[in-house]
Fold Molybdopterin-dependent oxidoreductase.
Amino acid sequence: MAARAATGAAGARALVRRLKQTPPPPGPFRPGFWRSPIRGPWLTSVFGLVLLIGIPLLFVTGMLSYAAYNPGLDRINDQTPDKGLLGFYLFDWPTHPYWLYRLTQGVHVTLGVVLVPVLLAKLWSVIPKLFEWLPVRTVAHGLERLSLLMLVGGVIFEFVTGILNIQLYYVFPGSFYTLHFYGAWVFIAAFVVHVCLRLGRMSRALRSRGLAAELRTDLAHTRPEPPDPDGLVPQAPAPPTMTRRGALTMVGGGSLLLLVVTAGQSIGGWARNTALLAPHNRAPGSGPNGFQINKTAAAVGVNPAHLGPSWRLELRGSRPPLVFTREQLLAMPQHAAALPIACVEGWSTPDQHWSGLRLTDLAALAGLPDAGSVLVESVQPPGPYASVVLRGNQIHDPRSLLALHVNGADLSIDHGYPARIIVPANPGVNNTKWVHRLTFRT
Ligand SMILES: Nc1nc2c(c(=O)[nH]1)N[C@H]1C(S)=C(S)[C@@H](COP(=O)(O)O)O[C@H]1N2
Ligand SMILES: [Mo]
């Protein structure tokens, strides 16, 4: 037995030795294949530094985005109920400041888009590493390669799923939220390992050349960096066709362009006209209901007959259910609040002037003035976004409304007529439209 294992191990060692002696296959695995004279640790580290700042911000705003749904409150709010320990950080999402989600989600989406050129440039700059030969040499080397696979695979997966989602291409095999959430954890784990392993090398590389001097260097004076142990600097550099300044300008300009064509959707006003990449940039119409609509009533299968004179609001709590017509609701004291709609897709509206009934007053009417949560149900056929559970702090904020009016007019059908939820700092998706039942709970 032992003898056979020993010969087996010796055989494996001999095989590895032989493999190490075989030359790499032709093409990208050959060191001579990659010839850009500006590729090297300094350029890689400049892009790396930008990502080192940007990615943690993307991760944190992404995790906040998940917390904002109050997934721990009720299963119907939760897109990833099997997350286990990954939900350790969840907290009660606040209602102050009222623009909180508009900011965090606007930053998440805009930053994600703006970092795309930097990410592509970073991947380009390290591409010889991805074609290392042999792919796996030792166990330690194998583990390092696996972490790189998780890093590169993870980052591409997160950017692709995120961008498809904001462009409204729902092509995912499964829920976008689940994929993007689990993908984020896989990626961030690999990112932390990568940063720990490379931070020293990165800061040395950054100190090896001055940015200001590099920005003054023209093509005639563009030289390769000294050879590096990672093999980023080409062994047989081609003559330069672009300066490092040119590469940085191209990437920075690309990011700036993406910023201009994206950020407008989260800023609103005239800036929305520059948001060419944003699907919800399309003219929202004019008048009091002239602001962005996510899904129209028709698009989600709301039956218009359920929104007419037969519509009732049902209030449940500690008493037998109460039922109100819209006229009866309008005869009750009305309250106003100026609040935005801010969607997970990154777009948001400026503050709109809503009026209607305070959720806290409705809780009292239902016999539960200290209600700890409320199940909101719409007339929409059961499915995603047809219902939601809101938390006590959201019910009792005086700006939280069951809105009947917006900007002085009746809600339009597509903005949720006869009644919709509007709660400060709430993700758009939890501001349910076409509400017909509120069930308050202790
Ligand atoms: N019943 C119901 N309410 C809903 C939705 C929905 O699909 N069904 N979409 C939500 C989403 S994702 C957003 S961003 C907001 C958008 O509100 P608006 O269309 O009035 O701007 O409504 C929310 N309310
Ligand atoms: Mo949304």
Notes: Residues 298-441 form a domain with the Sulfite Oxidase; Chain A, domain 2 fold (CATH 3.90.420.10).
